[in-house]
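Two proteins were folded this term; both appear here.
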Amino acid sequence: MNVTCFDAHTFEKDFLLKAAAGKHEIRFLKLQLTVETVDLAQGADVLLLFVNDEGSAPILEKLHTFGIRYIALRSAGYNHIDLVKAKELGIRVANVPAYSPYAVAEHTVALMLALNRKLTKAHNRIRESNFSLTGLVGFDMNGKTAGIIGTGKIGAIVAKILHGFGCNLLGYDLYPNPSLTEHYGLNYVDMPTLLKESDIITLHTPLLESTKYLINEQAVEMMKQGVMLINTSRGGLVKTSAVLAGLKSGKVGYFGIDVYEEEKGLFFYDRSNQILQDEILAQLMVLPNVLITSHQAFLTDTALRNIAETTFESINCWAEGKESPNELTFNIETSKVLK
């Protein structure tokens, strides 16, 4: 099959080529899929899309006219694809449901530790031969209450790690996992309780209409003074302006993010020769109690290999006229995505 990979990055090409095993023709494009670039998809049988490629209804309609019937997402998230329109057009969409929950979970805890123990500030001081410890006081993770919003594959591993640190665990999820309570003592509570009682709050839920701006002004107001907030899930879960106001007031004591609601066009790219136009992000970048990484939580060799292999598992199935086990379908009656 002819495969066109939009928003291709050097860190993933070798993994994708190896997984393809010479069975398919792959064209790598650095450009993201947008209304302006959709014509570049002509001639493809399958599109490989990344997290910031657009899969809106107008784009899907254009792809349909090109004869494209398959889209493979190089991600677990699918909020950037209009699955209702895809189903209507007969375009089959597959994702990578679990490439490496350990990669994201471990990065989540790395952000917590780096913020807590002020590792960036300490590292920069040492580079200047400043060995003072003033201003580097952290806190013991042991005994702190950590609230995990979303206890699926990634959230469950975060719970396991934080249990090892001796944290008291609270969880919020529409579908509780009893094994987390059994093994790690995680106590499921409602959202207000989690916000009010947690010293650390970490987000691991998908971005849906119901979760858009889950963390807003009201949520920040309910949090403990000096709370640590971590987001390695989707940027749109957090209303960043509300958290910025919380940082300025001291309500939010630490903010660690690997995703940002306006990251498109910024994250994954070198913009060092340009003036940053995003004023909110610019303010965050200079605060000493904020740590930002550029959507790299997934970036381990294990995850990249699994993403590539799962992606081409779907493509191989389609090439053989079979259904991929990773296909996403949308049930219009229930408004739910079904695997």
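Next, the second protein.
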Amino acid sequence: MVWIHGGAFMRGSGAIPTYDGSRFARDGVVCVTINYRLGADGFLYLGDGIANRGLLDQIAALEWVQENIDAFGGDPARVTIFGESAGAFSVATLLSMPRATGLFRRAIAQSGAAQHTSSVATAQLVGRNLADQLGVAPTMVSLAAVPLERLVGAQAELAVELAVRPDPARWGEVAANGMLFEPVVDGEVVPGRPLERIVVGAGADVDLMVGTTTEEWRFFLVPTGAIDRVTEERLSTTARVMGLDVEHALSVYRASRPLATPGDLLGALITDWFFRIPAIRLAEAREKNRGSTHVYEFAWRSPLFDGRFGAVHALEIGFVFDNLGRDGAMTLAGIDPPQALADVMHRAWVSFASSGTPGWSPYDSRTRTLMRFDGAGGTVMIDPAAKERQLWDGVR
């Protein structure tokens, strides 16, 4: 199993305590955690030079695994890539890339799917904005000469600007996605939009598992208190910008959340737009070519912030790695998270990597079967939140 870390393609490392692979090794899996170039080093593209260097780093790591993993007791014919957030976006993009063909047999995308990429035009907009921020010419040579500390600082400043003022005229597609850097559809390394390529059969021979947490976006709303500053006007504007019928959509979301505040509803909307619906679309795209796909949802709620944190983004990772008790790991889960849930989830990931069958039925658009992981362990669900899912048909 090869782990690709998240961090919005700008931060992160394969070496943090939560990603320690000892429990996988205990259970007969050789676990490899990798690093790859981030930010401008990994994903800046101005139309010249090489695009998607961060993805090429991931491919280089997978080629190394093919050539060397048998020396560590691993089977190069049974490689599973798995990742969370930007790592999951990477997994879905690799699934669609010709250069990655044959480098892995199975793939797991945790809180990320195949709808977050940039066009060349958007990548060039971001590159020019970065160059302007640094006061240099918008060329790869000029940007490469900028001291690293200054480059990283400018990236961070632009990321804040993007979050505060997501103007499509200035930022192109990333105004909606909210990530300064993403894989670029350059026509060569990434030859087409990943979801479109998967629809026509790319990666159909790879077993896939994809899923999300129930309340992803509360990770970004609760700790700062932003969830309490959301107004009805902002909620309605967000729903409208997403392309939803505002009155009908909000009535549907409220029906299953009668005590929800505007902030609660905003979190639910963005969770679905950014994570849950793209995961469903990826599963549906795979069905067209009979690719084996399993879907899950992580619903256990963290007790942090007086119980308001919820089943947030990245919370499932420590359960997957079975690292709840490791020093420095799983601070998101609070005190005494349920080990029984980690036992169930870790076992499902090991089973999927070993055999392609995590323990529940594959997903199809007729039954829409998924596994919900919660305090009870795991419960098979049929099309949960169906009315909310249906709101996004033809929209997302």
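The first strand starts at residue 2 and ends at 4. The mean pLDDT is 96. These notes refer to the second protein only.
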